[in-house]
Predict the structure.
Amino acid sequence: MNIGVLIEQITPLYNNYKRNKKDISAVKALEIMWDIGEILSSYIKKENIAPHTLFWSVYGKSEGIKNIPQKSYITREFQNRCYRIRKIFKDRKDIDNIFHNLKSFTAFRESMPFFDNHRYKLKGKEQNNLVKLLNSDVPLIEIMKKIKELQTKKIGIKNPRNQRLHEVEKEKEIFINFYNFIYRIIKAGNYQLLLSELKGIDIKYIEVLSKNTGALTQEGLKMFKLEIPNNLSSPWVEYSDVVKKLINQKDPKLRRRFRRLIPVERISNLANMLYALLSEENYNSMARKMSVP
């Protein structure tokens, strides 16, 4: 299945959600998004593709495919949320079974880290209490207040054990330097400038580097063997060394420290920008997005 067929499968569900999201129940919204997540999850597994790479392709309508002129507006954020919902509920029936009285999709959305994030996922009594809260007839403003309190307690905790963050301080600086470098050459909107900056770097290598960068956003994502070419120049070689070091760590501690210094959103952004270098169409599309105020 190519990206065009995938988008054709998702679009009716997406349009149904967008047209009716103000009128449909929270449970129905979850079911539609679960259906989209199921399509995405099946494609990711079948094609062995990194989620962030697929989401970018769907949003950009895979500009590199010449026979698909129409563009998709299914955002990466929306796709990622659908994918997460599919992973939270192994069976579609679980949505109605667990959240039979869910009043607000927004309340569920704000609670998602407590259901799928390995660092913040609640278990046992704590999770049951959260489910009861989301199913309750308590006014939404009170539900949201309690969720915010839970976020502050569970997610907003300051970890005093930051003395070892210096171990990835060098990697942080290299990441920032490379991020700014890639940002500038895309922001310039000059494809010829890009080609001169690439200096003969194999596109396939950039694709693998993009996938591995995306895999650093969270544990459990597929990583790919990274063979660093001999002809890489600065800052490519420095960043490649950082990525190779991080993905080769069997213990995830170093990657977790790296994510404490570099926001996950920035890591994901860099993965997307690297993906934009794979073709002139992708590059121009990303450059246009950057030029929008």
Remarks:
- Residues 26-47 form the longest helix (22 residues).
- Residues 61-71 have pLDDT under 50 and may be disordered.
- Residues 189 and 253 are 38 Å apart (CA to CA).
